[in-house]
Amino acid sequence: MVFMVLCPILVRVLERYGMETVPKILAYAGYTWMGLLLMFVCTAFVIDIYGLLLSVLTRVFHWDPGPWIPSPRITFFIPLVVSVLVGVYGHIEALSIRTELIVIKSPKIPENVGKLRIVQISDVHLGLIMGEWRLERILREVRRAKPDILVSTGDLLDGQINDISKMADKINAVRTPYGKYAVTGNHEFHAGIGRSLAFAEEAGFTVLRGEKLEIPGLIIMAGVDDVRANRFGGHGKISEKQLLSGLPENQFTILLKHRPLVESGSEGLFDLQLSGHTHGGQLFPFSLLIKLLYPIDKGLLPLRDGVFLYVNRGSGTWGPPMRFLVPPEVTIIDLVHGG
């Protein structure tokens, strides 16, 4: 058990020495064990609550629970079976990429454009566990969507990859008439910001770090660093209000931001904020905790008339290579002219 607890630390140490095979085995084993343990503990906690309720009923109503009291063997084997079943299902769900389609109508989209299709990926966490074949499953859905623009809202890279150029080439090969755009997440800084930026650029992304640009005749794209950049000397301190102020009000503006938080004073300065970070909780019941931290953990949130925040629940996984009741996502956003 101690070895499993130390696995994530050993993985990072071995990564620094350029090793991949041994860290990959340790990462898969250690993080899978972590996921199973979390499910075991959660199930055992529910059984403990059940036992506590029986105890309260016994004291209040002087009722003999008798056969309703689970034996020690049952209280061990139920969490064990549940954690194994959830683990098997979770591994399958983590590979089952879902596409989510949202349509946003705005008079700011030029009428002659018809439809502008943006595809969003987020929190792919390419590394030891999220390798080339998992990336290919994500890109298959991206290619099927035939995007005009591809965006990544952070945590594209996570840790050591020896064949990093090969994966960058796969992303770069996706055709997008109006480009690829990305912002940093917290894990870009954990993996090494220089290396992460080099990978994103090799993959064909224009990384927006407190920057904005106009896609002529279409929309304005803006992006900010994750707040983690403040600790690494990045561009995280730039105010979103400062970045977005002065933009033409008749042009549709998209803000790429890793965390699904709307900065005070910026809400009326963009039309659509695309975010990620939450993974939708990744594993139920942790998805319930995420709801306490953010205004929305996944999906579309109207902020005001014609202004929206969309949170992608993650295209990959972090930590345990599994998901439970929160499948990975590739988002398709169709922008069309309308009121």
From TrEMBL:
UniProt xrefs under InterPro entries: Calcineurin-like_PHP (IPR004843), Metallo-depent_PP-like (IPR029052), Metallophosphoesterase_sf (IPR051158)
Residue spans crossing the bilayer: 25-54, 74-92
Protein name per Swiss-Prot or TrEMBL: Metallophosphoesterase
Entry-linked CDD domains: MPP_YkuE_C (cd07385)
The keyword Hydrolase appears for this protein: yes
BP terms from Gene Ontology: lipid A biosynthetic process
Record-level GO cellular component terms: membrane
Any one Gene Ontology molecular-function term assigned to this protein's record: metal ion binding
SUPFAM superfamilies referenced in this protein's UniProt entry, alphabetically: Metallo-dependent phosphatases (SSF56300)
Keywords annotated in UniProt: Hydrolase, Membrane, Metal-binding, Transmembrane, Transmembrane helix
Pfam families: Metallophos (PF00149)
Superkingdom classification of source: Bacteria
